[in-house]
Amino acid sequence: xxxxxxxxxRTHRIFRQLALCPILYWxxxxxxxxxxxxxxxxxxxxNLNEHLGGRLxxxxxxxxxxxxxxxxxxxxxxxxxMLPEIVLLVCAQIRRYVSTGKFKKQENESIxxxxxxxxxLILTCQRxxxxxxxxxxxxxxxxxLVYTIKNYMLDWLLIQEEDELIxxxxxxxxxxxxxxxDFGGK
Length: 186
What we know:
Elements: H1 7-20, E1 23-25, H2 32-39, H3 41-52, E2 54-58, E3 62-67, H4 82-100, E4 111-114, H5 115-129, H6 135-138, H7 142-155, E5 159-162, E6 165-168, H8 171-174
Antiparallel strand pairs: 1-3, 2-3, 4-6, 5-6
Helix pairs in contact: 4-5, 4-7, 5-7
């Protein structure tokens, strides 16, 4: 077990996590992975960029490996489908709620809201932006819309569910989308 936190095993585990998952989280600043990432930031960033074509961002409690637009491999978020576009609009609304004080960040940068607040967030975005959405999402039943968006966000580690609570993870604030100010549903 101790050897797993040292040497090649640790390096392989961290590279694998960054390459295969959208984010690597840690709970405290003394986490061995966090310390290693912070010490080896330049070397890790250089290798990831050379081999996969992306950018490493390290924050207080997380590391993100972000792919450049023209260097995607496999299933990527966001892509050109409507659902990721909607999720980016939801993420932008989350940031607006944080900046206005409606949502409060926890010490670990996450936001905890109720399931009802999450549903209201989705429905607010639908009312505001649905003219830009495809017919499928524009006319989708509200429960199915919330379910679809929630599952997508769970899959991409943008949120977590715990009982009747939704934990919005820091990743959700990292990527946002918007329609132009002169958007009129066209």
